Amino acid sequence: MTPTMVEHGGLDIMCLNKYCHSTSSSSSSSEQRDKKVFTKIKLSLSSEYPRKNAEILSGQYGTNLLLIGAALMLAIAHHDPAVREEHLLSFASCLMLLQLLWMMWYILVRERQDNTRTERDVHATTCWIRGGLTLLALLSLIMDAFRIGYYVGYRSCVSAVLGVFPVIHATHTIAQVQFLWFHIKDVIKCYETFERFGVIHAVFTNLLLWCSGVMSEAEHFLNNHKRRLSALGYQNLTIEHSEPNCNCTTSTCSMFSSSLYYLYPFNIEYHIFVSALLFVMWKNIGRNLDLSSNRKRKVTKTQGLTLGPILGLLALASTIGILVVYITHVEKSLQMRQSAISMFYIYGIVMLVVMCCAGASGLVIYRVNHKPLDTSKNPSRQLDTELLFSSSIGSWFMSWCSVVAVLSTHSRPPYRWTNLIYSLLIVLEKYVQNLFIIESLYRQQENAERENQELPAAPEIFSVTSSLAPPYNGIINRAYETPERVCVAMETEQEESGQMYRCPRKPSEVPMGVGTKGEEAPNIKRQILKNIAVLLIMCNISLWILPAFGCRPQYDNGLEQETFGFSIWTTVLNFAIPLNLFYRMHSVASLFEVFRRV
Q1: Are 352 and 529 within 8 A, CB to CB?
Q2: Element housing 15 (H / E)
Q3: Are 352 and 422 in contact (CB under 8 A)?
Q4: Model confidence over 493-525: pLDDT tens digits?
Q5: Is 14 helix (H, G, I), strand (E, B) or coil?
Q6: What are the tens digits of pLDDT across the range 229-253?
Q7: Nearest to 348 by CA among 281, 294, 399
Q8: Are 99 and 172 in contact (CB under 8 A)?
Q9: Is 291 helix (H, G, I), strand (E, B) or coil?
Q10: Gap between the Cα atoms of 109 and 502, Å rounded
């Protein structure tokens, strides 16, 4: 080290090269560190801003599409001659054609990128959900066939749009189901901005088709309700006739027309479920997956399922009987009408009490068995939770309106107080069921905990560092130890990929732990939770069937209509009943997921 003289302010200062160099290097390193921090902030802002910007822009685009369709539907509901059903169907057909073009573009781009592996979110959907959607899609295709047959019978006096729309809708349904089966789990990482607009277009196209189906079904039930009131002597009720002003050229027009309304519930549920799945795909665009939580779950065992399926099938059978009796009796004399409504409320009270007890039992089991919550990011699970709460609002609002009507009315029908109890139980049952489903979905699975633990001690049996092995000071035979390690590594790797592979093992010289068995003993708590899940699934299906196929005592009991008036109460029902139907079917899907997780 040679000293150097630095002249500063007339004084000579001795400085060693080593320390001068360290001072300059520290200042330069701090400058580089500041530059790195600034560059990192700049990159994060520049990468995050387009993503958030694309989310906002695409969300606004989809919302405005839905609002345009809603404006057309309101004009049609007002029966404005300037806006007809053909205009709405033409708009929906254009949206479906645009979605078909986007799906073709997406599939072609993916096929040209064979060399790159597309990430997939295993939690986005399951095979049974896609199978259920395929069944709903088949029923929607039958409805399209009926629409085409209806158009053929009246083609001389109706617009050609009524015949073109079901053809486009059928093509759209087939292509969309194919897309759901093979691409709904994709995590898009290229052309993100464009793909966001494509996915959100598909989401709101299905939402618009759902709204259109809900409007048609509500109009049908409202006309039926007006006919019943007219038969009872009510006046000043206008019944809208939607039949064309010409004769049908075939003998099946009336059959097609009446059958359509029995298929509407399936078509409605199909479109709302597809929009939910596509929304999860939209949320996954550009997402970095957590590989530790993005794993397939093991196949769920079904041993011990006895009481839940038996009670569920009993509930389903009684539901079908109640539906038949209600529909056949509600349009007859006043006494039979009141007995049918009273029968419905008594049945509903029994069903809701059973569901509340089952859900509360599941919550008690969860509280006793303390497990940590799974806080990993999961858009599908988060959407399930939000949809459960938001769709509960409709039936809660309808129930509280019924409570107000029962307490304020002066009439004394025989079903007055059963209506009150039924409405309060609806509120309580949804409280309990929502808590049970969310608690189950956010519970950390025991299988996941076991997978995160260290591997079993098999490779350590012949290891020198094992606490189970006796100390050995001689020569270690690596040729004897290595095959076991390779064997265990191969077995672990193939188990994760789903293959069955077992290495030849020597008889273990280490005694098994106390209480360890060759097969896992059946867990009583798991069996109870599985039976609860199956029972709630069947009960929710039963409570979906009744309003979906015409059993709606809220239209027929007269209490709410007396309190709120005809127009206000029908508006409430047109808002609340579709949300309640969606809640029941979405609860079925969520409870299937609960059954698989237990």
Answers
A1: no
A2: strand 11-16
A3: yes
A4: 444 444 444 444 444 444 444 444 444 455 888
A5: strand
A6: 777 666 666 666 667 777 788 778 8
A7: 399
A8: yes
A9: coil
A10: 41
